[in-house]
Specification:
single chain; alpha+beta; Beta-Lactamase; Helix Hairpins; Heat Shock Protein 90; 3 domains; five-stranded antiparallel beta sheet; five-stranded mixed beta sheet; 44% helix; 24% strand; flat
Amino acid sequence: MNAFSEDILAAVPMPLLLVGADERIRVMNPGAMQLFSGSGKGRHIVTVLRQPSLLQVVEQTLRSGVAANGRYVDKNLAREATYRVRVAPVQDTDGTCVLLSFEDITDLQQAGEMRRDFVANVSHELKTPLTALLGFIETLRGAARNDPEVRERFLLIMEREAQRMNRLVSDLLSLSRVESTERQQPTDPVDIKALVESTLVSLESLASSENVRLITQRMDDGHEDLVVRGDRDQLQQVLTNLIENAIKYGRSGGSVQVRLSYSSRELAFRGPGIRIDVVDDGDGFDPIHIPRLTERFYRVDNHRSREMGGTGLGLAIAKHIVNRHRGRFRIETEPGKGATFTVLLPAIP
């Protein structure tokens, strides 16, 4: 292969390997050198690839002259990377060679896995209440047909399960809407102080039923305007989710604090920012759960969450909404010391 052809391969960003009829590497472009941690020029392909299924594809293409596809898995990174490899015959001055091109499909594969997990989780979340409803309907048609006491108890349970399914469907629709608009930053001015106050009023009855006090605090010098560019309904949904969770998972007879503060130079935005902390005094949880807590359907305590009517989507929705507002979402907790959920939003100067 002449120098001009090697320059062309070097200009291609994806990893490329040219293998001769003797199964030795003739050319590795910079992308391939990075993938395989150095140059393998002149070495036998076996010493570089070391994955039998792909080596077999290379050998078959060299023999048959017919292009084929293979797969290469790179396990040398912090995360496993998967490549789709196209093995195609090319003519060189001294015979047939094969050109291996490596296309990184890791994100595509992960998206497929996330989709499958999502469908499996939704199916599971819906199947449980549906199975309960079908069982109660069968019982009411049979043994409990003429038992008013049992019928009333079963109907209450059926209502609760139907409400749970309704919440799940509503949260799924809400998550879909938020994800579809995540790249579109809202522009309407929203008064955060007024929004917090109206949210607390709407949750007062829930707090009273759980014997929890709702407290608001200003943690700054009392900066008058707490205004952001945002979608009022979505931001209220975030606050409602966080405060409702704090009420449900906090300590009965305890308190939930909503702290507001303004910073003229928030490091996260390199400009003015508003910080909202929702703090409960509940049992807290192991911080090991924090990285996954905003995943769809992830729960620290599955049984307790379902008992309280949780769908496992609230924090995922909150995170996407905060992302849409170009904000930051943080969680801090310690077993026995409650939890703090923080929303940082860029403020209007």
